[in-house]
Amino acid sequence: MYQQMIFVNLPVADVDTSKKFFTELGYTINPQFTTDDCACVVISDTIIAMMLSKQRYADFTKKQIADATKTSEVLLCLSAESREKVDELVDDAIAAGGTATGEAQDHGFMYGRAFDDPDGHTWEVMWMDPAAVQG
After folding, report:
1. pTM (2 decimals)?
2. Treating both helix axes as pointing N-terminal to C-terminal, what angle do 15-24 and 83-95 enclose, rounded to 10 degrees?
3. Is 28 exposed, middle or buried (0-12, 13-18, 19+ CB in 10 A)?
């Protein structure tokens, strides 16, 4: 059965910095699709983040490239299997050079935190009680 994938393409200042940051979070780099100006970060079987140098990113758009440290171009949200995994991933991101952003959001059945990666892209990490989704 076909499983749809998502490839998130993000402009970065330094591909090597992005590779180091995301591998410190436990993700892998697919060398088949990684070059000096692009890193293929495997988040899951269906989620791939392509970290493109700004020069390479410009090959795919005629629009001005947003400076994610000054403006928000996208909010990326990853699910986590538990509240503890939310904290673990965000704490690891901060330790790897990311920046905490916003306050933890605790709604009882849903819990989330967020961090900015070294280029300022905001990554939210969220857990939701499976019982809340079903009912």
Report:
1. 0.90
2. 140
3. exposed
Of residues 59, 77, 79, 65, the one with CA closest to residue 114: 77
Burial (CB count within 10 angstroms: exposed 0-12, middle 13-18, buried 19+), residue 87: middle
Question: How many CA atoms lie less than 13 Å away from 116 in the CB half-sphere?
Answer: 18
Half-sphere exposure at residue 121, Cβ-oriented, CA atoms within 13 angstroms: 21
CA 129 to chain centre: 22
30-47: b (≥16 Cβ within 10 Å) or e: eeeebeeebbbbebeeeb
pLDDT single digits (tens) 24-74: 999 999 999 999 999 999 999 999 999 999 999 999 999 999 999 999 989
